[in-house]
Amino acid sequence: MVRRKVIKIDESKCNGCGLCLPNCPEGALQIIDGKARLISDLFCDGLGACIGHCPLGAITIEEREAEPYNESKTMEKIVKGGPKVIAAHLEHLRDHGETEYLNQALQFLKERGIEVPMAKVKNVHPAGCPGASIMDFSKEKEDKKEEVSSRRPSELRQWPIQMHLISPTAPYFQKKDVVLAADCVAYALGDFHGDYLRGKSLAIACPKLDEGQEIYIEKIAALIDEAKINTLTVMIMEVPCCRGLLHLAQEGMAKASRKIPIKLAVVGIKGEVLEEEWV
Hints:
This protein is an alpha/beta fold.
């Protein structure tokens, strides 16, 4: 046994919909007795491709003692799914920078005379992580470059901002409008400060990488009930795993006795706002 990251399924939240299954070509998940279950540690690579596809936020990542992940045993299951499943798994490893596992998978295919399908299967990401895919759109940005006449001032009016560090009782949260933003949002959205942060208090989090997220639900509930915030704007990236932040906000709302408006803003990886709605 080794200490490593593997997925964790909250059975009290899981409704057995099965949306996570096709996004795990490693075969680590099965629906058993109406619930998604991790059937073996050795098939789970801990990279969390299934997280963003759970509509109820029942899947998270935890670090614990587990069987070491075994790429060869995983590949034995994957090749049975055919070229597209093989391609999805290889792209998943490539996009997460798992070079060692990728080399092991390629060696497995070579030894068995199985053609590597990555070059032939385009835009297939049933289990790959779009949030970790390598993309370069700097040329597009250069083509649209505009002169900025002066420096834009920061609209940040508080510290700290990370969810693990904030205190819901801090004066800058009392009866305020609050933005709960995924870590990447401010980097992707050029007008984040002027269009979304101005006049608001801020909390940031990463629903995929942060550990101990149960405390986030408690803090959101406290912001609503104790700080009596007016509104909560949840800002996430378009990548699937980012949806977990909205689930956390909704769970915090469900736990609170007060009800407030929650607005969702989805930001594209190229910096455009794709969606805005009250949820």
